[in-house]
Amino acid sequence: MLKARAKYLIFSVGVLIIISVIVFTGSLSGHNREVVARVNGEAIKKAELNQYLNLIYLYWPAYQEIFSEGEQAEEFEQEMLWLLVENKILKQEIKRIGLEIDEEEIEKRTRETREELINNIYNTEEEYAARLQELGLKETTLGLIFRDVQMRNLLYKHIGDGVTENDARQFVEEHPDFLEKAPRVHAFHILVDTEEEAEEIIQLLDGGADFVELGMERSKDQHVELGTISSDINFDPLFLEAAFALEPGEVSLPVETSFGFHVIKITDKEEAGVLAFEDVQGEITEMCKQVRFQEYFDELIKDTPVETF
What we know:
By secondary structure, the chain is of the alpha+beta class. It has 2 domains: 16-166 and 286-308, Triger factor/SurA peptide-binding fold; 183-271, Chitinase A, domain 3 (Roll), CATH 3.10.50. The chain is built from 11 helices and 9 strands. It has helices spanning 46-59, 61-66, 70-97, 103-122, 125-135, 143-160, 165-174, 195-206, 211-218, 237-245, 277-303, and strands at 35-39, 42-45, 180-181, 184-192, 225-230, 255-257, 260-270, 273-274, 306-308. A 4-stranded antiparallel β-sheet has the order 5-4-7-6, with helices on both faces. A 3-stranded antiparallel β-sheet has the order 2-1-9. A two-stranded antiparallel ribbon has the order 3-8. Strand 1 (35-39) and strand 2 (42-45) form a beta hairpin. Helix 4 (103-122) packs across helix 5 (125-135), helix 4 (103-122) crosses helix 6 (143-160) and helix 6 packs across helix 11 (277-303). The longest helix is centred in the first third of the chain and has 28 residues, at 70-97.
């Protein structure tokens, strides 16, 4: 696992991009006004905002209950307005550059999503149609989210295509910790409530019991095999200290954490090292694309006149 990756934006192309946490400093005082924002002089109307909110509620019905009233409703409305502002900026930039939306792909994703909504949420065509009517939506509206996601992807690819191998090598020179490989172990554990139970587990293992079979019978955690973990993973530090003190085939004494008492075994151990650039070139190139895209988009937002009302 490479260090410091969490510092950088991980760009998502999935639909859940629409509910990412957004910092919004504008105001929505004047909720009854027809125009709620202007982006480069282009209006965003209250009806567009309501439509987007209702589209969210179609996809995630529970959100309507959570965000339908009070401060949460206002905050959520502000987030969705800022999302519409960003999408408007994206649309204007894509038009300026001359990138083309794939309408067939949007139609395909819309059809697939319609079936998923019916099968997984609304059960029948009739319930789905009734929900659309309740929210005042047309079926064609489903494509709005996919259009927004595709716009982000188009601009991301346009910006990312300019990233070269030299850019990736320069990034590594500036962030040498990306080539550091943390120590790793392949770990198993059996989790129980008391130290006495853990000691009993150890005795059974000493007597020849199979670790995995015993773990499946006695462990509170169904994941007896944790797999390969690195020393910088977000695990309990006491667990990691005990696991990395073991040698392959060795079983620990009882290790107490906030979850209970663990008996740990490792079957493989890799020491810390340095990765070759070629081993992680693809990953680092993608990281460079993410950073470059975010810098580009941040600058785009900064330079775009935005008014909210």
